[in-house]
Specification:
This protein has about 575 residues and is of the alpha/beta class. The protein has 18 helices and 23 strands. Strand 22 and strand 23 form a beta hairpin. The longest helix is centred in the N-terminal third of the chain and has 18 residues, at about 70-90.
Length: about 575
């Protein structure tokens, strides 16, 4: 970042405000060090803006500064949230919240800070005794009848990050109008306004009591318990990647009847530094290295990995040659929904009022599966708060039977309102058992789907642009794409453009129609004449812009899969060239 004199001066002025007695000695020393440093990059990055409390909460690098995760930015967010709760539930004397956290460095400290501040504002707090999966936070909010919740987590971000997720009384992350209402309150809070001294009488520790209820509810999701009895010795290798999944996932698999679960020993250790992986993200193949090592030694049937807060699931299985292959998030979501629809139908459980949900950037093959079964499929924005919204608006009228997104998140139930790796992994093991009972692998089931509904391969291209300059560059890229949308992508003609910011769809001959969505979103989609789909959106939690590519093809036999896979990779290279992403 360029050392702009005016920007440095602004950051220095702001940093000096963090040298007052309102901040602890450790924080003041860290700020003094940033002010004294010859290179002002860290000073600028820490103070050029306030860490933004967005619609989902906070996420950022830990450290001292207004643009960092620390007890003061967390404190101001919580005070603002508390102020909003007291206004929104005015007259209610027993406002209550759940506070949960993951395995990250400072997560317990931040969670206890949050609990103290809520209790100091006369709000009852249910604080988990240790780290727990994100979905259990959602479950607890609903089960305990709370008005809100906070989960301290940065999901699968690098170890330097932490975050703050705000939940509403339905157990979902906050949506309009509460999102903007909370943001307004948070923006009005100064450090001096924060009530840091808690009322311990209003803080109740919870743990095993909620765990058991949560796991018992998850067990009700099993569609075919008989196939599990037949394949109870299915060889499962599981890793929590040092995170919260170790608290619940092995227990859930055992409860479902799987008694041959091998947990990766080195990664069953709670550690916010994630020492055995480059990044604790099950979307990255590298994160499954140790699990695949064990799977080869054991000749396992399936490998599963959850991210640090156990809301995403990564998976690997054997292909037709007996080689271990990674299954991407789109394929995993497709397998889940195919199994749920197929087996609910086989058991007479599928009803015309059932519905499924996927996000707009997730594979379109799912719609073909739903259409063939005459089941409603809904598209929504990226993020499980939007899937939760669909569940909420149809409550009591239609039954939600599953939904997911390409980024390795799935939710099989409505008693949780966020993606859930605990239930997803339990169900995934059942799908694997169902396949094995037919003499098949999950890879074989995937081939069956492609033969019936058409080949599809999905790719995500992440363009990382950190810092202020990066944020400006990403903003400019979206502006340029809107002003000059591509006419062709990798040799395929663009026939439809969807802009979710203007909520307009435009055809190649300039005909416009309105998009029926509940809100606007900074997303663009391009559809081509050969069914290629490209979506682009800036990440809401990381310094990058994401491109989602879906390439289609016709597959007549499973032996054609590798050829089509290679061709789709060539197509991706051509599309990247069209968009100047090389």
């Amino acid at each position: 970042m360029a050392n702009n004199a005016q920007l440095i001066s602004q950051c220095e002025t702001k940093a000096k405000q963090w040298l007052t007695p309102s901040f602890d000695e450790e924080t003041r020393k860290e700020v003094e060090s940033k002010l004294a440093a010859e290179d002002k990059t860290e000073l600028i990055e820490s103070f050029y803006k306030d860490l933004e409390f967005g619609t989902g909460g906070l996420r950022g690098i830990m450290g001292a500064g207004s643009n960092r995760m620390n007890i003061y930015t967390v404190g101001m967010a919580t005070q603002g949230f508390a102020n909003y709760l007291k206004k929104n539930f005015k007259g209610k004397n027993d406002i209550a919240v759940v506070v949960c956290h993951d395995c990250r460095n400072n997560s317990r400290k931040f969670a206890e800070t949050v609990a103290d501040i809520f209790s100091a504002n006369d709000i009852k707090v249910y604080l988990f005794d240790d780290m727990r999966p994100t979905p259990e936070c959602s479950f607890a909010i609903r089960h305990l009848g709370c008005q809100a919740g906070v989960n301290i987590t940065a999901s699968h971000n690098p170890k330097e990050y932490n975050g703050y997720k705000a939940y509403w009384e339905d157990g979902a992350q906050v949506l309009a109008p509460h999102d903007t209402g909370i943001i307004d309150e948070v923006n009005n809070v100064k450090v001096e306004d924060v009530k840091f001294t808690g009322n311990k009488q209003l803080i109740q520790i919870i743990g095993e009591d909620i765990d058991k209820l949560y796991l018992d509810e998850i067990h009700t999701l099993s569609i075919d318990p008989e196939v599990i009895k037949k394949q109870h010795d299915l060889k499962i290798v599981y890793t929590p990647l040092h995170g919260t999944g170790m608290m619940s996932i092995p227990r859930s698999l055992k409860l479902w009847g799987f008694d041959n679960v091998h947990c990766v020993k080195e990664q069953m250790v709670k550690d916010g530094n994630f020492p055995t992986v480059v990044s604790p993200n099950p979307e990255n193949g590298e994160a499954l290295t140790l699990a695949l090592r064990d799977a080869k030694e054991l000749d396992a049937d399936i490998v599963m990995a959850s991210d640090p807060d156990a809301d995403r699931v990564g998976m690997a299985c054997k292909n037709d040659k007996g080689e271990w292959v990674l299954i991407n998030g789109n394929q995993t979501c497709l397998l889940f929904l195919y199994y749920i629809i197929t087996n609910r139908k086989a058991k007479g459980l599928l009803k015309p009022t059932d519905f499924i949900v996927k996000t707009i950037v997730t594979t379109e093959v799912i719609k073909k599966v739903a259409d063939k079964a005459s089941i409603e499929m809904r598209d929504c924005y990226t993020g499980f708060k939007w899937i939760a919204r669909e569940i909420r608006i149809s409550e009591g009228k239609q039954k939600y039977i599953g939904g997911g997104e390409e980024s390795y998140g799935f939710l099989a139930q409505d008693f949780v309102r966020d993606k859930d790796a605990v239930s997803a992994m339990s169900l995934l093991a059942e799908i694997c058992a169902w396949a094995k009972n037919q003499g098949k692998t999950l890879y074989d089931i995937l081939m069956d789907i492609y033969l019936e509904y058409g080949f599809s391969k999905e790719f995500t291209v992440n363009v990382v642009r950190p810092g202020k300059t990066g944020a400006d560059e990403i903003k400019q890229m979206m502006t340029d794409f809107r002003n000059n949308p591509p006419k062709e992508l990798g040799g395929s003609k663009v026939i439809l453009v969807k802009d979710f910011q203007s909520l307009e769809a435009t055809t190649a001959d300039s005909k416009k129609t309105k998009l029926d969505m509940p809100d606007t979103s900074n997303v663009l989609q391009w559809f081509c004449d050969d069914d290629t789909k490209v979506s682009v959106r800036p990440s809401g939690t990381e310094p990058k812009i994401k491109f989602y590519l879906e390439i289609k093809g016709t597959m007549k036999s499973a032996s054609e899969y590798n050829t089509l896979d290679e061709k789709s990779s060539e197509k991706v290279a051509a599309i990247k060239k069209s968009l100047n992403l090389d």
